[in-house]
Every structure is written in C-alpha cells, then in structure tokens.
Design a protein that fits this description.
The two termini are 16 Å apart. This protein has two domains: 123 residues, Rossmann fold (3-Layer(aba) Sandwich); 112 residues, Rossmann fold (3-Layer(aba) Sandwich), CATH 3.40.50. Strand 6, helix 5 and strand 7 form a beta-alpha-beta unit. Helix content is 39%, strand content 19%. By secondary structure, it is of the alpha/beta class.
Length: 250
C-alpha cells in the first residue's frame, strides 16, 4: 500500500529547547516539521526593578534572564501571565502568587484590577509586549513601570517556510505571536514572494495561539483556521494537525 505523504507543518519558535520540543511534538503527531525560527532573543542586561508591590513576568525567557541577573522579588506579589511562565519561576525557586485563569494580558489585568489601585507594579518583559497589560493596569490605578529584559529580532536566514508556502508546498503553519507573523511577512518581502506566500498560507491550515496573533494575521490578509481556547503551544499544534488531517491518528 502506498504511504500517505506526511503533513508539512511550519513552526516558528526560537531556536532553543522550545523549537526542539515543538519538532518532537509534531513528529509524534505524524507530521513533518519545518523548523523556521522567526524570533531570536537579544538580552538587554536589565533586570526587574526591585521594591515594587507587584512584579509581572510574561515569559520563560524573561524569568531565566531575571534569575541570571540575580533578581530578588523581596516582598512583592509575583505574577505570571501563564502556566509556562509560572513553571519557569518555580524552577528558578521563585514563589508564584498570581496566575490568571486566562493566559493573556487582558486576563492578567482582570485578575489584578481590583487590587492594584495605588500600588506600584513592575512589568518585566520583551520589547514587544502588548500595551493591553500596562495600559489596563494603569487604568486600574496602578503606578506601572516597565523594564525591557530582551529584544526579539528575526534571525538571519529565516524563511524556508516562506519559500514552501509560496510554492504551495506547506500544509500548515503555527504562529505563536504577532511578531512571528510580521517576521514571516518580512522574510517574504525580502524574497519578493509576499503575495504568493500569503496565498500559500490561505491554501493551508493556519493556527494562531491567541486572538492578538489571529488579528495580526488577518490584518495582513492571512486566513486563520485554528485558535485554541487555551494559549498553549501543544494544544495549538494538536488542533492544527487534527484540522489539516482529521484521520492522522487512525
């Protein structure tokens, strides 16, 4: 019997254990991963400001950089935007006081808005953090300070998936932030295949990890087929593979 071709799925996570885990997961789902990192981390050398009433970390990378810098939360209430950030904090021996039910900026604002009026809040994250978080906390009466722990840039050479999409050879794509969408399109522009790449994505199954990522994709003309209720990469990958090939587990 002729073997069915495996799904070719592009994944854009940074080139570290996150990409390794993503590739392993997609292979376990019977897909053929196309690892094409669209984000690289450039640390700024800064660490979260000490002395705040609340400190918010929004990513595993931010936690790791804060820990490497020797940051101590003191008496602050430590908040994580989601489960992976909370896990990273615990692994670094930090206490975690607040994790919102909804793993988004708006979810964290909803969790804190009733208690931060008059409090100082330190937000430590990348240079591409959503203003939804800082503006929402400020509107709730908090004195908000933001520290940029790292910058997110597009790695040199990124774009294998762009060529595949433009040629109609990509079955699915997993966008995990608005910036991965923007960097994908920047790579397409550099190669002169933006229109064809978008057309290729629109013939494939496109997954976005949350509503902000979906909105960014749609603004640029990319149809989004899958947005999981939980902003979790494994959930996203499983849902996209299932949508692209409903019988892949049979």
């Amino acid at each position: 019997m002729r073997e069915e071709p495996r799904l070719r799925v592009a994944v854009f996570r940074p080139d570290d254990e996150r990409l390794d885990d993503a590739v392993e997961l997609l292979e376990s789902l019977g897909a053929d991963p196309v690892p094409d990192p669209m984000l690289a981390v450039e640390p700024t050398g800064e660490s979260p400001r000490e002395g705040a009433d609340y400190v918010i970390l929004t990513s595993k990378t931010g936690v790791e950089l804060a820990a490497e810098a020797g940051w101590e939360p003191g008496d602050a209430t430590v908040c994580a935007i989601g489960a992976s950030t909370a896990d990273a904090l615990r692994e670094a021996d930090y206490a975690v006081d607040v994790v919102p039910e909804e793993y988004t900026s708006s979810g964290l604002v909803a969790a804190l808005e009733g208690e931060v009026d008059g409090a100082s809040v330190e937000v430590a994250r990348s240079d591409h953090g959503s203003p939804v978080l800082t503006d929402g906390l400020a509107d709730a009466g908090a004195d908000v300070h933001e520290t940029v722990l790292y910058r997110l840039v597009r790695p040199d050479g990124a774009g294998e998936s762009v060529e595949l999409a433009a040629d109609g050879d990509l079955d699915a794509a997993l966008f995990t932030s608005s910036l991965t969408v923007e960097h994908f399109l920047d790579a397409a522009d550099e190669r002169g295949v933006r229109t064809d790449a978008i057309a290729g994505l629109n013939d494939a199954v496109v997954g976005a990890i949350g509503d902000p990522t979906r909105t960014t994709a749609q603004v640029h003309g990319i149809d989004v087929n899958v947005v999981p209720e939980t902003a979790d990469f494994e959930v996203l990958a499983c849902a996209v593979v299932e949508d692209a090939a409903p019988t892949h587990r049979e």
